[in-house]
């Protein structure tokens, strides 16, 4: 109840604050049409096409029709206009035009000029979404160059200050939900995972142009990810001639010791260095545009520093520390070219290569209740290398009508995970040396065909997609003296996935109504073949064929106020690592094991939204509800007579995520603007019973669990003289539920400053993350016969300085 009141106060306080990227500037649109004679239907070239404002009738934009009577006008902002079509000897046509927000291209259709009386009618033109909080209400776009307090960091760190996003255990959450599909340039990629978020903490933010957050995706997107989609857009310059950008940032983290180690282990990493050089090159001439982008990230981090207490029902108490010093290098090269042989056809070929190397030095001491006796010291060295290579071929045909396109693409990804662990198991009477080696190769081939046709009042979209994914994995254990490792749980496992899908989407808009409706039909077949000698699991898999509909309806009260309603169905398929049968021994008394009997969870989502815009800002409010069947979560259990906790994924029945979100952006003065966001939600899990099969069947039942939680964020932007910007960001995360327990509240403050120099070609920045060193993770978990309480003092405070130069 105290937490609830605390959140309610926070919610009210955020409303009281109503007082940069959320309501950013709108993009312009392109309109097209064709002019003919009314009598014989011949086309009319060289017809005058003019846009005027209704109030003053001043000329704003215009063109003339071509030899086929076709015309198109670009860069038209949203608003109301008069369209005049005239030609000597013909009656002038005058139409009222209302520009909407849904489509970047509009086909106004055929206009027939005749000598009879002119007819007036209303033509509704749809435009693209705003940057930031789009008029579409389901998509928000954030320019990372404006995120001054996170420049020089990773994409994961840059997301911390974005409205609606929280970071928990290295995972991104939208509105308290981590079931997110992460895309790179609109496509799933092995770096971010096909169904997971791996690698986000290592992608340099310097390589990224913008991040798109889509809470309610339409049918043209894959059905996976019930919380929504995060689309990471890499930088790509298309300026004429030769140009580029060179950047370098460096920093230090873990400047102060937050909590002393338990006795007898190696020192925590301190003053951890960070280096991120980057290079972007582009050459465009005539029909060819070539590009190259290279980034290198070197970082040391105190990746984990968790102090915990395990209390068993028999009275046993174990105190432990998990300390992980990590060194990471992350190298990325992306290159390719765009070729436009003519104005109707374009080809893009690109390649993407990444190498990620992780080295971990870990110590886990285990003590008795009063720290007088050390029961065990587990030390590990991890040597992990990941390779990713992606090749992409795209073709697009543009029909005569602007925005009328047919696109085809093929994408192939190879991803290797080569992981070696070496353990030293120091017991009171002996020392054992253990090891394992994991090798996994992932092959993913995607083919898609997409068609878009603008209409007079919207557009139609349709397409097909086929995915084939194959992941052979092997795990070899090398036990030492009195090894605690389960050597019979190793061997091989082959994961295969086939997904054909087809979708259709229709968009309609007039001056009062917006409608988007679509459906995606998806067939999924997953086969998981495992080593027949495995001591617990056998080969398994699943398949389904079902529709995933989406509907969005909006009513425009006037030009500045809009109501909107969404409904969609989504799915979260288990990722391969979620069903991987091999136990992971980086913590030998808290093992994580996959579950090949895991099945997809299916979600129904409903959202109501309201947006009010004005000259210097906007306000957005929404209420949402997600109903999840077959909720995927980790369940921790113990085996009687064994102190080891086995953490295994399960389908835990039905759960609910409901709440409200408020976003406000306001420019108070030319030198100061801010945005405030608040999300308050309730996570609820119904009572359930599951059976953890590894290492022996263990039944666990949990009563219903519910909590009201949320977060609040503030971002202030100060524009000072001499092209200097300052950003102050603050985030508060309220207590929340986690599987079988709760996570405590968190708070952090970030600050950054940047200055343009060298006539705008150069830029300097200095920033700090968690400058007051307040961010730490507290957890309380209750299982079958044990309680687990922990606090993680991992590295969160980082200071960086950087420089970039455009040429």
Overview of this structure, please?
- The protein is built from 3 helices and 48 strands.
- It is mainly β and 807 residues long.
- The strands form 7 sheets. It has a 22-stranded antiparallel beta barrel. Strands 1-10-11-16-17-14-15 form a 7-stranded mixed sheet, with no helix packed on it. It has a 5-stranded mixed sheet with strand order 4-3-6-7-9, with no helix packed on it.
What is the fold's blueprint, element by element?
Layout: H1 2-16, E1 23-26, E2 29-37, E3 48-52, E4 59-64, E5 70-76, E6 80-86, E7 93-99, E8 105-113, E9 122-125, E10 130-133, E11 139-143, H2 155-159, E12 165-168, E13 171-174, E14 180-184, E15 187-188, E16 208-214, E17 228-234, E18 241-253, E19 272-285, E20 288-312, E21 317-342, E22 345-367, E23 374-398, E24 405-426, E25 431-455, E26 458-478, E27 491-509, E28 513-530, E29 540-556, E30 561-572, H3 576-579, E31 590-593, E32 601-614, E33 617-629, E34 632-638, E35 645-651, E36 655-669, E37 672-685, E38 688-692, E39 698-702, E40 705-720, E41 724-733, E42 736-738, E43 741-743, E44 746-757, E45 762-769, E46 777-783, E47 786-792, E48 798-806
